[in-house]
Amino acid sequence: MKPTYIEHIGIAVNSIEEAKTYFESVLGLECYSVEEVADQKVKTAFFMIGQTKIELLEATSPESPVAKFIEKRGQGIHHLAFAVENTDEALQNAESKGITLIDKQSRKGAEGLTIGFLHPKSTFGVLTEFCSK
Amino acid sequence: MKPTYIEHIGIAVNSIEEAKTYFESVLGLECYSVEEVADQKVKTAFFMIGQTKIELLEATSPESPVAKFIEKRGQGIHHLAFAVENTDEALQNAESKGITLIDKQSRKGAEGLTIGFLHPKSTFGVLTEFCSK
Prior knowledge:
Chain A has helices spanning about 15-25, 65-75, 85-95; strands at about 5-10, 30-35, 40-50, 50-60, 75-85, 105-110, 115-120, 130. Chain A is of the alpha+beta class. Chain A has a single domain, classed as 2,3-Dihydroxybiphenyl 1,2-Dioxygenase, domain 1 (Roll). The interface of A and B includes residues 49 and 120 of A.
C-alpha cells in the first residue's frame, strides 16, 4: 500500500498562461501538455521534473473547486498526489485507518490516471490524492 | 539553472508526533530523521518517498514563521523545494528575471543543505526553495 513516489503537485493559479511563463523562463521547465478536465471544471498544464509532475490548475468556471480554493486561500499549492499501485486499495486502506475520504471509489483523472482523494481534515490540511496507471 | 527534481515538500503541522503516525501508519513511510533547526525555530521530521523528502515542520516558538503560517492558513503544505546544482546561481538567475527573493544569498538549512527562498508573491503563492548539496 506504500506509495512509491510523488506523482504530481497540483498548484492553483489564476492564469495558466501567466504561470507558465514563470515555470518555463525562471525554472527552465517545459510544459508538455495542456488538458481540460471537464468534470472538475479546470484547465491543467503539466511540467516534468525528475519523477514528479507539476500540474497547474486554472478554473474554467466560478463553481470549480479550484476557483473556490483561490477565493479562500489565494493562489498556491492545492494538492499532493502519491503514486500507488492500486488506487481503490489505497483508499480502502486509508479509510480502514480512520481517514475521511472524498472519493469512496476511484475515478478517472487527467492523463488517464485512476485517482481518488482523501479529505484534508484528516491529513493535516494536505489535500491528498492517490493515483495509479 | 534548471532544477533536477523535487528535493522536498515542507508541511506545517501542529504536532510532529501526531502527524508522524499518519505518514507512518496510513502511508507506510518511514521517518528517518528528526532535527531541530534553531534559527528557523522549527523541529523537522523527514520521510523519503522516491526522489523526494517530506519534511514535517513544527514550530518551537510562537515567533516561528511556521507558527505564523499555521495561525493564518492552518496546517498544510508550507513550501516546495527544488534541487539545483548551485543555490546562489539559481537565486541570482531568478532575481534577474524579476522574481523577489527572501534570501539574497544562500544559507545553511536542515540536513546540511545550502538553501535559499523565493518570495511567494512572485511565484504564484508557492513559497519556493532552492537547495543544493
